[in-house]
Sequence to fold (457 residues):
Amino acid sequence: MLLYSHFLPLFIILVGSPPGFSSFRQDPLSLYLVENNHDPRAYPLLSHTVGGQDGKLEHSLNRQLMSYKSNVFDFTRFNRLRSLLSSPKVVSVDQFGAKGDGSDATEAFMKAWKEACSSREAILLVPKGRRYLLKPITFTGPCKSDLTMKIYGTIEASIDQSVYATDLRHWIVFDNVHNFKVEGSGTINGNGATWWKRSCKIDKSQPCKGAPTAVTFYQCNNLIVDGIKITNAQQMHVVFQKCVNVRASNLIVTAPEKSPNTDGIHVTDTQNIQIISSTIKTGDDCISIVSGSESVQAMDITCGPGHGISIGSLGSGNSAAYVSDVTVNRAKLSGTTNGVRIKTWQGGSGYAKNIKFQNIEMHNVTNPIIIDQNYCDQEKPCQQQASAVQVRDIVYKNIAGTSNSGVAVKFDCSRTSPCQGIILQDINIVGEDAGKAKASCVNVKTVNRGRVSPQCN
Fold:
């Protein structure tokens, strides 16, 4: 009777949990088969084995149920059992009218998002081998539970600039989506060429104005972005803004070297972010980290062409800016206009501190190591100002390679707020033809450890 009294509540819980159990029976192995590009209809025997009363899993579950003989109910094992009985709901954009032939799929994507976001542990699927055109779109959360978006096909931006009339700065936005994962081998293509040719940096007769960021993650916490390709953004490729706990890995970000303002990955007002094992080749910064960002790690990064890996710019328009606890580790930069750079405007305030650049290879880089506290990205010369964003506690360690300019290390620091705590350790940068490179150091005192070449005088 004691054993029966424990099985009765277990039976009631299983029967009273129809979503997990029914989805398992209705959609067996679908997730596995979709991820591995198999058609579930080609595996009827597998489905029968999982779902049939005489199947192996059924027999295994019966054995596990019989093991619950103790007087104390083992919730850990029961939760493991429940996970076997549940299968995420797969929501394909094709189910909602997307044709996948390059025609407009904006409405279908929005309907599919609403369905997936309102479901429990769903997967939003963009199928392989298909092309979808999207107008500006915002995917809004929070969602009912954890959500995964699997991109295997190609998503392309509309080249009709009039569709951006209500918001010129964004194409695809994920807003307030938590516990969210975007993954797959697919491509997001911003079709940026029509925007680049109208940039004032390309055509001086054009007014200087903004252009859309291809993908923006805004106020997303516990976020994973893995494996996707982002190419030819209208302006910036990927922006993480006001996010917490982010892992971006195995990304491939590309645009022509002359494409204006096409930063690869832009981090702003975001804390605890990792950018890992990614290749970035664009017309601007490979990675740019600006105010409000803290605890940023970039590891195993391949960068170039582009403008290098930058902290900043910070302090424009006499603003306050704060960046701290940044580590760039194991990076390869080739043919970039800068290597590892910190850039701040005169007149700003705040700090850029506790920053480490280490284990970095440079090949044919114009400014391999640079701090510029007199940054001025405007046509008119910037006037001298007393205040500045403070740059302190910066470490450069184990950096080697070649500079295609005569100055390999440049510290142009503020007269009123000079750079502090600058450490160089094991630095070996030479000219492109094995010639000697120089260091230019203004308003800074450096500490050298190990072999450092070139050195500040």
About this structure: The longest strand covers residues 349-365. Residues 92 and 125 are 5 Å apart (CA to CA). The radius of gyration is 27 Å. The mean pLDDT is 87.
